[in-house]
Structures are given as structure tokens and as C-alpha cells.
Design a protein that fits this description.
Length: about 750
């Protein structure tokens, strides 16, 4: 059975997930003397904070320590970027409802909860800024504007035969990982600490914890075997949770577990950024866009966090798969008194690609054409330009190919006629058909983050131990990287022991994010395994008196000419000859450069392409709707593991569907988040999945960049394919504007205005 590159293997922990044997941070055996920590959170959204009196908490039964900003030995700063100070515990002012004020540590979690509740912060309320429009009017920004431009957009707008304009908004999204934020910190000798963290970025947990403690990075060891979901929510937020647990362990001298309850998690951790879009465009009678001037305003919340990267990706994806000769796109990160928004699957790309869909819809209405016809007129490549406004080139042939295959897979023409006939005969029910085509850039926007390390060890029985800087959150990264190593050594993947991510074994890692996990860590593991294989090949060649290039590693055997031995036998022979069977591997993505001021460069290693078609059924009396069918074609290059990739595509689409239709975050007038937990926050359920759900991997389309075994990333791009649902709802309603999420209430408002 094939177990290396291209094999459809299940995720390495899949069976343990189904049986409940998979251990997450909260399942670890509790060390002796374990204490439990609970956060005290701000009851108001904005106000002047008097120094917090921790005495009431310290006097409660079972309390060991209560910690506030004055108890931090290092810096009260948890900023992931280091560009702006972001406090672990509020000082002087509170900036959002649910902001951490203090940490209470007790013998039991119930005792810690009671003690945290006993605190009475003195806060003089100040008016909160809760809406994007209010922040824009006050010029309340977290960073300078980002402006991407090409040509003279103002002149091109003035000269365009048809003038278009629009405004719309999309909401945020709660990550709603099944496993909430959690960290277990265990003190060791000489001030050392081990932190078991549910994190996408162990190195950042290490750095933030060391910053808060005021110690060297080498004093803090961070480990993560697996997460129960992440989706970006455990990139920067897990870092301050781990740092708080580390602070409590240092202060108490005992192991401390900090596990956020669902409501506290949703109150204190960031979401996907809501966006407000305002744009003007010009086109000709054929619907060809000639100019675009747009503002994309992101609600960053109370602090910068990762908003700079989110806005950068939104701006660079504002044209998506289309070409516009004259462009000016301005990206803003607005400051509001809500929880600081953060990374979420797609990292600004999902918001950015919405812009062009709205512009194309307006051009279609103005010229009397279908959205699909206008989109085809504006595809990059072919008769149009293929260079993005920031200077990178798209592959127009792949853009057109994924769309052609999606049309074929969905039987577009026949269904379009069928749906039109249905709508003509039903007064209250209405069906809609929508489409979407995607070009998504793969790489971190910060060039330095595009690097990875790995450690591979071969033992004398031929078993292999693999460690790398990527983290497993259910996406199948570990099995993919193991398949890469299995391919290099020509052994079954079962011979490879997958181990927890650890800052002790692979230091200075990047987060598992931006869909780069397989690209970066796969290459790093490949480099390490190849170095060991070369040493083993030289040993076999010397033993047999043959040329090194004649030695082959296949099916667990090492062969050359008429000679053969098992992989384990050769490993033992190498040991007897004092040949190293361990190696580190390092990889950095080549050919990346970016000027953040000019907004020009080559920020992405390659583009992932995809296309989708969705059909919805809408009740015009209630606004209720559901997706009846979805058809998707996704470019994965030469898939490392088709089973994993198909699962990622399906899951991403459903998560995108939730963001676009039912997941609504709602703050009241006082700035309190009222959608806390599944009783008030609606994530998609099994019955929201389209009954007809067709997914196809694009065939014979290897990556043109030097990716690992010519594969392509799959984690984030398919989420954006759910944009076809928005277009299908607009088709069903006929509405010029439909804000997101398209809840029944918003759909009814759109119907009333059309």
C-alpha cells in the first residue's frame, strides 16, 4: 500500500479522536500540587480604571495568589508584533468589555471563580466607540493607512462611460474551536518553566511568557501535541493565555492550569475582523472595468494585534482573480472599544475578495449582463493584464480552467434554465444560483516568517522520529509531513513516530498559519531526511563497492545492483560505522520581497485557484434560506494527501458558509457582547451542509513554484469558495445590497428595498 506522497491516508489522530483517546491539554495527567487560575474581566467597554484592590480575592477560601499588573516581574505587554503595547492586565483604562484585569489562582477552579467574582473594580465609564462609521468619522485608527495603487484612478473614473458606486459591510466571526484556550504551566529548577499550550505558535508563547516574566527565552519550554481546533484564534491569543499561566506558576511555585470557559473565551479573545467597504468604479458598455477607487475599513478592536497583516492581505486580494487597469485601494484598521480582533482562517483574504464581487454585481446590473459574463470579461490574463497592482503575476489559464470545470461539474447552463423556470412559477419560494472564482496568494505577508525547521532521527532498528515547528489542529499537517519523510526514506509511514511540537527541539518557529504549514515544514523535514539518506546511501555504496547514485530506497528496502538489505539493517550498519543518523533541516521560502510603504513586491510564493457554484432556496416571506447544492473545484497542485485535502475543502466551505449566513456577533449599546456560546451564537450544523456537495481536485495542475512535491496549500482558500452562497442569495433576492452575515432579518430588509 502506498504510504508516501499522494497517498490518501487518514489524519494521524483520527481514530483516537473518534474513541476519545486523543489527549488534549486538559486531558493531561494533573501534576501534584496543581492550582487553577481564573481571569477577572472588565464589566464595562471603556473607562478610567483605578488601581485594582486584590485583597477581596486574596481573602477568599482556597486562594493562593491573586495577580494584577503590579505583580508582573517583566513587562505588562503581550503584543505579538511588538509595534504597540498591548497589556496582559488593564492599567489606567479598560478598552473593551471582557478585558482581563487580574488573575486569581486557587486550589480548585470553583474557588478561583468565586474569588474572581469577589473583585470590585472601580471604573469611571467613558463613551465607547462601537461602530466602524463612528471610528472613521473620528479618524480612530490603529495604524497608518495602507494604499495600493496603479495608474491614475481618479482620471480613469472621470473618463469611464459608466460610473458605479457602492457600500456594504461584512461581520466578524467567532473561531468557536471545540477546545477552548488553555495552558498548563509547570515550574522547574532554576526558574525554568514548561508550558503545555493549545497554540498555533509555540515560539510566540515562549516569547510572550518570557517577556512577562522578565527572563531569557531559554527559560521557557513550550509544547503542543495537538489542538481541538484553532482557525487562527490560537495564533496570538494563545500566547497571552500561556503567559498568564506561566506568571501564575512563577508566582506560586506550583503547576497552574488556566482554562477559559466558553463565555470567558468569547469575551476576552479576538474574532475575524468586520469590514466596511466603500467604493467607486467605472466600466464600459461590455462591463469591462476601467477604474476602481475603494476603501476597506477593518474593525481592529481595541489594540493592533495582527490587524496590519489582515488589512495587507485584504488590500492585496481586493481584485481577486480580476484585472483593473487603474486602481487605488485604501486599507484602514479602525480602533473601537471591542475585543481586539485577530487572525482567522483566510486572514483578511475572505473580506478582501468580497469587494470585487460587489463591484462586478453592480457592473452586471448596469450593463444588463449576468455576473458570470462580466466576471469573465474581467479575468486576469488572456486579453487583459495578468499583473496585480502590487506587481505579481496571476495565471490566467488556471483562473479560466477552474471556472470552466466548476461550470461543467455543476451543470451550470441546465440548472440556470431550471431555476429560472422554478422562480417564474413560485410566488413565495425562490431559488438562486451563484458562482465565485478565487486567486489566493500563499505565504506570510512578513517575509521573515516564511521559514521552518525540523529534526529527524533514525534509530538502529529503522524506526524514525520526526519533529518540526508546525502544529496539529486537526488539519492533517502531521500526517502530511510524515508522508514526505516516508517518501524520502522509502518506508511505510507507520515507521515514523510523530511527536509533539516543542520549542526545545525546533526553536524560532513561525506560526502554523497562512496555509503554509505543509509548504514550510514539509520542506524542512525533507531537507533533514535527505541529509540522513545521503549518509546512509554512502555507507551502503561503500559496503557493496558500488556507486552512491545506484543506491535506492523503496518499500522498506535499500537496494543497489544485486545487493539488498532492509532499511533497519542499513541503519544499524551506519551506527556501527559511527555515521550520524540525526539531522536538522531548515527551509526558507525563496523569491519573496515586499515594500510595505510602496505596497509593491512579490509577497506570495504562488497562488491557489478555485471556483465554486452554489444553489440556495429562499422563503421570501420569512427570509429563511438554505443551501441546496454546492460544487467546487480546488487547485491543490499534486496533492500530498487527497483525503486530507478533500476534508479541508469541505470543512472550509462550511465554515465560510457560517460566516456569510448565520454567525452574527452582536454587542449591545453598552459594548457588551451578547452572543456568548452556542445558545446565542449560531454556527453551522449538520443540516446546514448542502445535501448535494461535490468537490473536485483540479487534475494535472502542478504548482509552478518549487513547492514540496509540487503540492499546493489547501487550509484557507476553500473558505472563500462559500462566497458563491452570497452571490446565490443576491440572485434569489435581486437585491443591490445584502450585508453579511445574510441572516433572515437582513435578507428580509434586502427584499424590502429591492
Amino acid at each position: 500500500m502506498k504510504t508516501g506522497m499522494g497517498a490518501a491516508l487518514r489524519q494521524d489522530s483520527a481514530l483516537k479522536h473518534t474513541t476519545g483517546e486523543a489527549r488534549f491539554a486538559d486531558d493531561m495527567l494533573e501534576p501534584p500540587g496543581l492550582l487553577h487560575a481564573v481571569l477577572a474581566l472588565s464589566p464595562v467597554a471603556h473607562g478610567a480604571l483605578a488601581p485594582l484592590d486584590l485583597a477581596p480575592a486574596r481573602a477568599m477560601p482556597g486562594v493562593v495568589v491573586a495577580l494584577g499588573p503590579g505583580d508582573i516581574p517583566g513587562r505588562n505587554d503581550i503584543s505579538p508584533s511588538g509595534k504597540a503595547r498591548e497589556r496582559l492586565f488593564a492599567e489606567e483604562y479598560v478598552e473593551h468589555w471582557g478585558q482581563p484585569l487580574a488573575l486569581v489562582v486557587a486550589h480548585t477552579r470553583d474557588e478561583a471563580i468565586a474569588a474572581a467574582t469577589a473583585l470590585r473594580p472601580e471604573i469611571r465609564p467613558l463613551p465607547p466607540v462601537l461602530e466602524l462609521e463612528e471610528a472613521l468619522a473620528a479618524n480612530s485608527l490603529l495604524m497608518p493607512p495602507m494604499v495600493m495603487q496603479r495608474g491614475d484612478a481618479a482620471a480613469a473614473l472621470a473618463a469611464a462611460p459608466i460610473a458605479l458606486d457602492g457600500e456594504f459591510r461584512c461581520g466578524g466571526q467567532e473561531h468557536f474551536y471545540l477546545e477552548g484556550q488553555i495552558a498548563l504551566a509547570i515550574p522547574g529548577e532554576d526558574g525554568d518553566l514548561t508550558v503545555h499550550s493549545s497554540t498555533q505558535h509555540p515560539t510566540e508563547v515562549q516569547h510572550i511568557a518570557a517577556r512577562v516574566l522578565g527572563c531569557d527565552y531559554n527559560r521557557v519550554s513550550v509544547q503542543c501535541r495537538r489542538m481541538g481546533g484553532g482557525f487562527g484564534g490560537k495564533e496570538s491569543n494563545a500566547s497571552w493565555v500561556g503567559a498568564a499561566a506561566a506568571l501564575a506558576a512563577r508566582a506560586s511555585g506550583r503547576p497552574v492550569k488556566l482554562r477559559l470557559a466558553r463565555k470567558a473565551d468569547m469575551a476576552a479573545t479576538g474574532k475575524r475582523h468586520p469590514f466596511l467597504f466603500r467604493w467607486r468604479a467605472g466600466c464600459d458598455a461590455a462591463g469591462r472595468l476601467l477604474a476602481l477607487d475603494a476603501t476597506l475599513a477593518a474593525d481592529g478592536g481595541s489594540t493592533l494585534d495582527l490587524s496590519g497583516g489582515v488589512v495587507m492581505r485584504a488590500v492585496t486580494h481586493a481584485l481577486n482573480a480580476c484585472d483593473v487597469p487603474a486602481v487605488r485601494v485604501t486599507g484602514l484598521a479602525c480602533k473601537t472599544n471591542t475585543v481586539s480582533n485577530t487572525a482567522f482562517r483566510g486572514f483578511g483574504g475572505p473580506q478582501g475578495v468580497l469587494l470585487m464581487e460587489d463591484v462586478l454585481q453592480a457592473a452586471a446590473r448596469a450593463t444588463g449582463q449576468s455576473l458570470e459574463a462580466v466576471r469573465e470579461h474581467n479575468f486576469a490574463g488572456g486579453p487583459n493584464g495578468d499583473e496585480t497592482p502590487y506587481g505579481q503575476h496571476l495565471e490566467g489559464d488556471l483562473i479560466r480552467r477552474v471556472w470552466a470545470e466548476a461550470k461543467l461539474l455543476s451543470a451550470w447552463d441546465a440548472r440556470r434554465a431550471e431555476i429560472d423556470a422554478f422562480n417564474a412559477s413560485h410566488p413565495t419560494l425562490r431559488r438562486g444560483l451563484g458562482s465565485f472564482v478565487l486567486a489566493f496568494g500563499i505565504s506570510f505577508g512578513i517575509v521573515a516568517m516564511n521559514q521552518a525547521g525540523a529534526l529527524v532521527s533514525v534509530y538502529t532498528d529503522g524506526s524514525i522520529r520526526l519533529n518540526h515547528g508546525g502544529t496539529e489542529m486537526g488539519q492533517g499537517l502531521f500526517i502530511k509531513v510524515a508522508q514526505v519523510v516516508a517518501e524520502v526514506f522509502g518506508v511505510e509511514v507507520e515507521r515514523i513516530r510523530i511527536t509533539a511540537t516543542s520549542t526545545d527541539e525546533v526553536p524560532n518557529t513561525s506560526p502554523t498559519a497562512a496555509s503554509t504549514g505543509s509548504d514550510l515544514n514539509g520542506w524542512a523535514a525533507h531537507v533533514a531526511a535527505t541529509a540522513i539518506r545521503a549518509r546512509m546511501a554512502r555507507a551502503a555504496a561503500a559496503l557493496w563497492g558500488l556507486a552512491e547514485e545506484d543506491v535506492a530506497f523503496t518499500d522498506g528496502q535499500v537496494t543497489a545492483g544485486n545487493h539488498s538489505m532492509s532499511f533497519g539493517e542499513l541503519a544499524h550498519h551506519c551506527w556501527s560505522q559511527r555515521i550520524s543518523l540525526s539531522a536538522t533541516g531548515f527551509y526558507k521560502t525563496p523569491d519573496l520581497h515586499w515594500d510595505p510603504v510602496a505596497m509593491k513586491g512579490h509577497p506570495f510564493f504562488y497562488f491557489s485557484y478555485g471556483a465554486s457554484v452554489a444553489e440556495v432556496l429562499l422563503d421570501r416571506l420569512t427570509g429563511e434560506h438554505r443551501v441546496l447544492r454546492a460544487d467546487m473545484v480546488q487547485d491543490c497542485g499534486r496533492s500530498l494527501n487527497p483525503a486530507i485535502d478533500l476534508g479541508q475543502i469541505e470543512g472550509a466551505f462550511v465554515q465560510g458558509l457560517g460566516w456569510l449566513t448565520c454567525e452574527e456577533l452582536w454587542w449591545d449599546a453598552a459594548g457588551r457582547l451578547r452572543t456568548l456560546g452556542p445558545s446565542t451564537y449560531k454556527i453551522p450544523g449538520s443540516r446546514d451542509v448542502p445535501p448535494v456537495f461535490n468537490v473536485k481536485l483540479l487534475e494535472d495542475a502542478p504548482a509552478r513554484a518549487e513547492t514540496i512535491f509540487r503540492s499546493k496549500a489547501v487550509g484557507e482558500p476553500p473558505l472563500m469558495l462559500a462566497t458563491a452562497v452570497w452571490n446565490a442569495l443576491r440572485d434569489a433576492t435581486g437585491a443591490a445590497r445584502l450585508d453579511l452575515p445574510a441572516t433572515p432579518e437582513r435578507v428580509l430588509r434586502a427584499l424590502g428595498g429591492c
